[in-house]
Amino acid sequence: MTRPFRLGLTGSIGMGKSTTARLFAEEGIPVWDADATVHALYAKDGAAVAPLAEIFPDAIRDGAVDRDRLKTLLQSNKQALSQLESVVHPLVQAARQAFLLTHNADDLILLDIPLLYETGADKDCDAVLVITAAPDVQRTRVLARGQMTEAQLDMILARQLPDAEKRRRADFLIETFTLEQTRAEVRKLIKHLRSRHA
């Protein structure tokens, strides 16, 4: 294979996706993080700030995108989400392409994309790993963070492809119970992919 094997990583909120991505990084696998990319685009002098200031001037504070204000605007305006996506998605795609070029010599890379299926990014992956957990475990984990209400969680879940559908479409699945069990499964999968695509 002349380019790295691209493993897409996704999973609904509270499933353990971010922890799993960190475990891949700890094994030396280069990880591209869609959420971190968006945070950088929204930060002071980030590439998304100027174009979003034209559409949502009230969402900009101190030269950066204020995520809470943006969230409020999205809730009150039906067209706002598609306007936001028209600015952010091309910038995110450009960042992903830059990452792919930088890591062209690696044998395996991980693309951590929460809305992988929803944005069609699975088409750019050689296989997809879905991280999952029981619904009650998921809800308990998210609410324990103390950053959102049940209603906000339900709104996020309504926008995401259902876990059952993600599992159905996955090439690989890891159900997260404990950190050590997840780490062992990550190592096993890396070994499997390397032996299959050497």
Automatic annotation (TrEMBL):
Is Transmembrane one of the keywords UniProt gives this record?
Answer: no
Taking the first listed entry, what is the main subcellular location of this protein, grouped into a coarse class?
Answer: cytoplasm
List the coiled-coil residues: none
GO cellular component: a single term: cytoplasm
The reaction(s) catalysed by this protein are: 3'-dephospho-CoA + ATP = ADP + CoA + H(+)
User: If you read the UniProt record, what top EC class would you report for this enzyme, in one word?
Assistant: transferase
Which protein family is it in?
A: Belongs to the CoaE family.
Which HAMAP family does this UniProt record tie to the protein? Dephospho_CoA_kinase
> What role does this protein play?
Catalyzes the phosphorylation of the 3'-hydroxyl group of dephosphocoenzyme A to form coenzyme A.
Q: What name appears for this protein in its UniProt entry? A: Dephospho-CoA kinase
Q: Which organism is it from?
A: Rhodobacter viridis
Q: Which gene encodes it?
A: coaE
